[in-house]
Amino acid sequence: MKNITYLISLLLFLATTVGICQTPDEAFLHGTCVDAENGQPISDVLVRADAEKIAQVYPDREFEHATATGANGTFSLTIPNAPQTYYAFSLMAIHPKYQAKRLRHEMSPRKSKYDLGKIELKRTLSLKGTVSGDKDLAGLIVNLKMHAKSADFFRAAAPIEHGAKTDTTGNFHFAELYPIAYTLTISRNDVIIAYVESINPEKQTEISIRLPKLETLRGTVVDGQSQPIADALIYATRHTETPHGHSAILASAQTDDTGNFQIQVLETEPQLLSLEVSKRGYFSRIYENVDIEKMPSIVPLEKGVTVKGRVILPQDLPADAQFAVKVFPADTQMEPSLNPLALHKPLLSRYFPATASAFVVDGLFAEKYTFYIIGDGISATRIDVNALTNPETLLIAADRPTATLQGQILWADTGKPVRNAVVSRSWYPWELHPSDMSMTLDRFEVETDTHGKFKFSDLTETRYQLDIRAVHAVLEDTTERYQRRHIRKQITIPTSNTAYRIYLGKRDGTPFTK
């Protein structure tokens, strides 16, 4: 019996040893997650890690390797460790009752085992609250939204929003919060009845909220001939007082067949309240610094000008293809840009099925505009429009196909391909959407493959600027660590059906060759 037990133990040991034995191209991570307050081990912590590539401009976008801690809080994880490919690793420890923690550790080509020791995790925070000031307090929706501070730590692991319901006595409770400010709202039937700009659960664990007064706003929406407008939308917005807080739509309403509306709005200081009245085909009207008692009872909307047109598109487009009509003021500069803050966005974008070929753009002022017709497989086509003097249907030939911009990035000194280089291309205003922000421009960016090649498809045939970012790494023998140097190059290049060769470090004045 003892021999059998020993044999089983030996087999388990060998199995465990085989499981942790590393090949030269792997690294073994080991550590223990413990409570920062009492030092007790924490089980079921999700541990995610990934090795950072030497040549990667964005080294740790994803954490592909994961495991969980056992009952004793320990974890073991294997990640890639090819000496010529990886130079560091990042690790994230996540648990619903603890604040996520992120670690980063440089790697050595001659080292395959990393003991990270004890990783202390702080507990998440809680917030208790009580609502008063009304007879019916059950079932109110309490929402917390994290302030929009720039912090990769919170964005990587912390939930942005939390929701809870009040009980019959108006009590509510939140857990799993982080030490950062939140905006709190309380709503009933989709109407916000309480708003707190900033709450930090690290500084206040309990809060009492007395529901403020709701004010009633009534009015009538009419057109230029004083005729009522049905189905117009009304939005009341409470604006934030701090740079990182969140505005909130307090309530919304819609006009009836007689153009009348009634909306209940949370009592708010005039400088923080705005009202928007809109309907498709009319110019929206926005009232800032709204004093409910002084709001006019009649809200006039001016009907916009409608422009109709028909387009001739390239043949062989897919049956489900669409084309877009992008509308710009006539004086908009249409220069390409690599600056994420330079966004000459269209006033509006309208999308239509390519099978129909006809379009209608309404709600325009009687002014001059620049229209662009674009779409998948459709090069951008411009037409100048005078919305006042062009009542007839426009005919636009937008039948030019799109082109590609492709190439290969090479090191100038060795001629070897530059892999994992980030290539960003400039964009033209007609490629943007009205809702675009600087954070949404990664669609104009690609990464070179193992052969240093990149490709941008579906472009209008014109010239583009390229911003090329790469990493040149050298291993220092004394420290056994990589010294990384970021190299950047910008060139202007036309679209072409052939591939370009672009050299980093080239000094002869030739920006690229075919």
Characterization of this structure:
The chain is mainly beta and 514 residues long. Helices cover 5% and strands 49% of the residues. It has 2 helices and 35 strands. The protein has helices at residues 2-20, 152-157; strands spanning 26-35, 46-53, 65-68, 74-80, 86-95, 98-106, 113-121, 125-132, 141-146, 161-165, 171-177, 182-188, 191-199, 206-210, 214-222, 233-238, 248-254, 260-266, 273-278, 285-287, 298-300, 305-312, 322-329, 348-353, 358-364, 368-375, 378-386, 394-397, 403-411, 422-425, 445-447, 453-459, 463-476, 481-494, 500-504. The strands form 10 sheets. Strands 3-2-5-6 form a 4-stranded antiparallel beta sheet. A hairpin with a 2-residue loop joins strand 5 (86-95) and strand 6. The relative contact order is 0.09.
Give a short overview.
With 514 residues, the protein is mainly beta.
Mean pLDDT: 88
DSSP summary, beta strand count: 35
Strand order of the largest sheet: 3-2-5-6
Q: Give the overall form.
A: flat
| Low-confidence spans | 1-22
Termini distance? 77 Å
Largest sheet: 4 strands, antiparallel
Rg is 30 Å
Please indicate the percent range of residues in DSSP E strands (runs of 2 or more).
over 45%
Q: Structural class, from helix and strand content?
A: mainly beta
Helix content: under 10%
Number of helices: 2
